[in-house]
């Protein structure tokens, strides 16, 4: 028999078919493990990202609150640099009046 006989091709072909099946099975197994790992990592990171987004939203709210308070305090400081405003506060809180000025009190003020 020569190398081109039908019998040899049959045995050689069945051996190569078994090897191809084995390689295909290993390839599918490797890909399944990879995609399983990728899916697990994706969902784990999605949960972490959701937590971090929630923390960021809370910190942004806090930042806005602090900024508003800081702006209010800057406004108060700028008003305290005005002599007329300081006079108004002295009259209101400490009942301090300039010489010759008499306070006018009403019954609504409770004094």
From TrEMBL:
Pfam families per record: DivIC
BP GO annotations: cell division
Record field: transmembrane: 25-50
Keywords: Cell cycle, Cell division, Membrane, Transmembrane, Transmembrane helix
Keyword Cell cycle assigned: yes
Name the UniProt record assigns to this protein: Cell division protein DivIC
Species whose genome carries this gene: Paenibacillus silagei
Native organism taxonomy: Bacteria, Bacillati, Bacillota, Bacilli, Bacillales
């Amino acid at each position: 028999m020569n190398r081109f006989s039908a019998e040899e091709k049959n045995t050689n072909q069945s051996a190569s078919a078994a090897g191809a099946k084995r390689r295909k099975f290993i390839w599918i197994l490797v890909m399944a493990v990879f995609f399983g790992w990728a899916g697990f990592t994706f969902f784990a990171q999605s949960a972490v990202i959701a937590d971090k987004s929630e923390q960021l939203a809370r910190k942004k709210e806090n930042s806005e609150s602090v900024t508003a308070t800081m702006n209010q305090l800057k406004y108060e400081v700028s008003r305290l640099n005005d002599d007329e405003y300081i006079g108004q506060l002295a009259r209101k809180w400490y009942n301090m009046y300039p010489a010759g000025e008499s306070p006018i009190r009403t019954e609504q003020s409770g004094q």
